Amino acid sequence: MSVRPRTIAVIAPLRHPIREPHAGGLEAMVWDRVRMLRARGHRVLLCAVAGSQFQEDGPAEFRLPAVVWPDERDATDSTFPPGHLERAVPALEAALDFIRRHADTIDLVDNHSLHPQPLTWADRLGVPMVTTLHTPPLPRLVPAARAAEHHGRLLAVSAYTAAEWREHGVEAAVLPNAVDAGRWHLGAGGRDLVWFGRIVPEKGVHLAVRAARLTGRTLRIAGRVGDVPYFREQIRPYLGDGVDYLGPLGQPALADLVGGSACALVTPLWQEPFGLVVAEALATGTPVAAFDIGGIGEVAGSAPAVRLVRTGDAIALAEAAEQLATERGHDPALRLGTRTAALARFSLEHRAAELETVFDMAGAGAWV
C-alpha cells in the first residue's frame, strides 16, 4: 500500500506529560511515536497532559489537566488525587468532541489512553481509530474494547498481551514496541549493574537491590519514583554502600548509563505486557538478567545476552547477572552482536513502516 502524509490525533494516557525525562515506558513509547511520525512527514496533534512536548501548534482542547497531589508524599501511579478524574474525563471528552467536529481534517486517531472513554467514542468520531493495548485486560477497559472492535482497530504490544485479551473476548493484532537506534547507542560496558524504570512495587527494584548485593557489584538505579511510600520504605534505607539512586534521567544520559553497565536487571512482579527496558538495554549492547514473567520472555526471544530466572528469585538473578557481566559485560564484539540482533527485531525505523501500513489499512476500512 502507498503511504501518504496524514493528520493523526495521538491520544496519550491521562496521568503524566509526554516529555523527557520520561515518566515510564508508555510515555517514552508515545513520545517516540509522535516524533517518528512527524519526521516521516505526518501532521500529528498530541492530546496529552498539559506540559507535554509537541503541543505547541495543537488545539487547546488537547491539553488535559495535570495531576497535582496535595501532598507529594502520597503520590502513586496506581491512584489519582481526589477530584482529578472529575476534571480529566470531561477534558478528554472535549478533546474527542473536537475530533468529531473536525473529522474532515483529521485522518486517523492513534489511541494510547488507559481510560475507556476514547474507545466508547470510536463509533461516533467519524475518524478511524487504532488503539494499542499496553496493559493486561483491565476491567474498566474490557467492555469498551469489545464494543470498539467493530468500529476501530486494536493492537497489542506483544503476543502474550494479545492472548490475555483474547481470553476476555477481545481480538488484537500484535505490533511490538520499538527503540530508536540513534538514541539507544552502543555502549562500552562497565563493571556496575543497572536497573531503570518506574520505581513502583510491581517493578520489583527491591529485589534488584538484593541481587546486586549478592554479586558484590554496585547497582545504579535510574527512574521516577512512582510510589513514594514504596520508595521510602523499601529502597531508601538501602541506598549507599553499593546502591546509588540517580533519579529520573533524560534519554541521552540514560542511554549512557545503560550502555556503560555490565548487566541490566529487570525485575517485574506483575504480568509485564512487553518489557521495553529489555529491548532498550540490548540496543546498547548491555546484557539482561530478568524475571521470566509476562511478555519478558517474548522480548528476550533466543538472545544469548539474556538470562531468564524464576520470578522473585534474587539469588538466581544474582547468579545470572554475574555470569552475563563476566562473559559479555565488556566484550566489544559480543556487545555489538547483542545490539545488532536487538535492532533487527525492535528498530523504530522498521516499526514505523509497519505502523504506516496499519494506518493505511485502518483508513481504508481493511483489516487482516
Automatic annotation (TrEMBL):
This is Glycosyl transferase family 1. Gene3D superfamilies: Glycogen Phosphorylase B. Coiled coil: none annotated. PANTHER family: SULFOQUINOVOSYL TRANSFERASE SQD2. Pfam families: Glyco_trans_1_4, Glyco_transf_4. Residues 24-182 form the Glycosyltransferase subfamily 4-like N-terminal domain. Keywords: Glycosyltransferase, Transferase. It comes from Paractinoplanes ferrugineus. One of its GO terms (biological process) is carbohydrate derivative biosynthetic process.
